[in-house]
Amino acid sequence: MIRTNLSTRPFYNQRSVQLILLLLAVIVVAFTAFNVSRVLRYSRSDTRLATQAARDEARAADLRQQAVRLRGTVDTKQIDFASTDAREANDLIDRRTFSWTDLFNRFEATLPDDVRITTVRPSIQNEGFGLRIGVIARTPDDINMFLENLDATGAFKNTFSAEEHIDEQNQLNATLECIYLPEVGHATGNRRVTRPQR
Q: What range does the domain containing 124 cover?
């Protein structure tokens, strides 16, 4: 029988150390694999982005060249001519869109009691609206008073009676002509200008 004191033999924890080392090796391999996959992914993404950036730069250069060519073909005189036409068209549109209500308010404010308006025919002219106004009155003085009242507003100019004749009812029919400038003066409301008493 062998008598040995086992307590004097050194005790090593080999399995625990091997297990810890194996676990550390697995963790290192896992991190290494993760890092390698990330590097490969970012490398592919970087290559794709670099290719796209190169395409975009080439496209931008091509567009710059096209812009230079187009600028060379632009006729500045034609652009000036087109903008002048556009301004004239806008002026015509502005002149065509005047207020009929404002015009008739002006007529009502300046019309003597013994004058009636029968027709109004506007036409566009260079300096404003040309108006042909048909009226019926008792005397030429009534028509003259109406013309003077129109002149006094400042919105009518070059007012005159183009034609006058007596009808079957012994009334004076007249055709008045004038230039109407809607932006000048203001309608004076519903006040009626009456003929002064003699």
A: 100-180
